[in-house]
Design a protein that fits this description.
Order of helices and strands: HEEEHHHH
Radius of gyration: 28 Å
Number of helices: 5
Shape: elongated
Oligomer: single chain
Number of strands: 3
Distance between the termini: 11 Å
Largest sheet: 3 strands, antiparallel
Mean pLDDT: 86
């Protein structure tokens, strides 16, 4: 009788990934990226504010006939909302800080750049799409800040030109966009692009089954 063949040894198990290691690296990278992204955002803020002021004025003018709204920059961060059809003493309808509208870009950039195990080209491509969507969001926030001021802050003029539904709709939309939606947008955008990657990385890895031993004839 031929000696029995030794049964093949099962392949060595690959080292198990520590549970939560991907999430821990994501959190660490996000903290490390906050300062560089904040520095870039600070550098670009004056230019972005001018873009938002100009674009928001054009957007508001589209909804008016004749065009009465003028947005005037006050320094690098603030803007005056002027209505040219009101008396000079009342023409300053509102003022707000444009920079406060888009500080969420810091969190957005840090989250998108912090994702581990994603090629840089893909990472930057996803960040570009997210920033583009965020620009439109910021523009609409500026629009609703101006329209909410017209509907709720000009006393008798607001009552004469806006009904109860319009006043409530503009006021509520402005608060929703400027608080919970603005703060939640970076997390929502990150989830749209990376929730599948996160779930895949955090899913427990099962060891591969060893091949069945060959039967000796």
């Amino acid at each position: 009788m031929p000696p029995p063949r030794p049964s093949p040894k099962p392949p060595a198990k690959p080292p198990a990934k520590p549970k939560g290691s991907w999430a821990a690296r994501l959190a660490r990278n996000a903290v490390l990226w906050l300062l560089p992204v904040w520095a870039v955002w600070t550098l670009l803020t004056p230019f972005y504010n001018l873009f938002l002021i100009t674009a928001a004025e054009n957007l508001v003018n589209i909804t008016e006939s004749p065009d009465a709204t003028q947005l005037i920059a006050n320094g690098k961060h603030d803007v005056y909302v002027i209505r040219r059809d009101l008396p000079p003493a009342r023409s300053l309808a509102h003022a707000f800080r444009v920079t406060d509208i888009h500080f969420h870009l810091v969190l957005l950039g840090a989250l998108f750049l912090a994702v581990p195990d994603v090629p840089w080209r893909k990472k930057l491509e996803n960040l570009g799409y997210a920033v583009l969507i965020t620009i439109f969001f910021d523009l609409f926030v500026c629009f609703f800040v101006v329209k909410a001021a017209y509907a709720t802050k000009l006393g008798s003029w607001s009552l004469a030109h806006y009904g109860p539904f319009a006043r409530n709709a503009y006021g509520l939309t402005r608060h929703l966009l400027d608080l919970p939606f603005k703060l939640g947008l970076p997390l929502l955008m990150w989830a749209v692009f990376y929730i599948g990657t996160m779930l895949e990385e955090l899913r427990p890895r099962l060891p591969e089954a060893p091949p069945a031993p060959r039967s000796s004839k």
